[in-house]
Amino acid sequence: MRFIPKNRITPDAFQAAVNGVTSYNNLYGNQKQALLKVLIEEQSGLCAYCNQPVTVNTATVEHFICQSHSPSFDLKYFNLIAVCRGNPGNNVDLKHCDKYRAEKYKNDYFVPFFLFDKCLTQNLNSPNPFFDVEYNPRTQLFSGRIIPRNQNMQGYPRNESRIREAIDVLNLNAQVLVEARKQKWYTVEDTREKLGLTWEDLFQNYLNMPGAGFSEFILLAIRKKIQEP
Ligand SMILES: [Zn+2]
Hints:
Elements: H1 12-17, H2 29-42, E1 59-63, E2 80-84, H3 97-105, E3 131-136, E4 141-148, H4 160-169, H5 175-195, H6 199-207, H7 215-227
Antiparallel strand pairs: 1-2, 3-4
Helix pairs in contact: 6-7
This protein binds zinc ion (ZN).
Zinc ion (ZN) binds at residues 47, 49-50, 52, 83-84, 86, 96-97.
């Protein structure tokens, strides 16, 4: 998960996309696409939950507070985010993001709002306050799994159990995501070797690439390499 810089005022592009329509289900296909485009752009091209790259063809609109619980929010800008399709297929345990939640939990679980606030690695001394990556200092390997940060960060009260619950409900450690993170990490290590970069250089590079797939995972992983070599 990652911080999404939502404007306080509904952006003109969003307003234009939904112009004159009062309910999400009344939008035409091209309007839904235009709306998705606005959301994807403000999310730097990544799924709001798993952070894999998405496009208008691979993403869907997620209602943060779902339509059945609060119909009046169903076309409100602040309530809409773009998410991936969660690995469509028949086996629910291979799915993730809202698809997994919808099938397993019938949309009766709300991702805590606080998990989006400041959910961002800002520099080496200010890592993501909620999430960390699973790392084995003995083997120096990453499992590809994300875990709750186990200490208070940036003044937030300890929320380990609620963060663990959100990871579970969205299945953010689905096998397909764990493998994708590991593959991404291998390419990061390769790039570092080929270009002769330091971990600190790489960290800076990724700070400047918010649209890189799994960028929070990569930043937290590089930070481990710097702090626990
Ligand atoms: Zn996703």
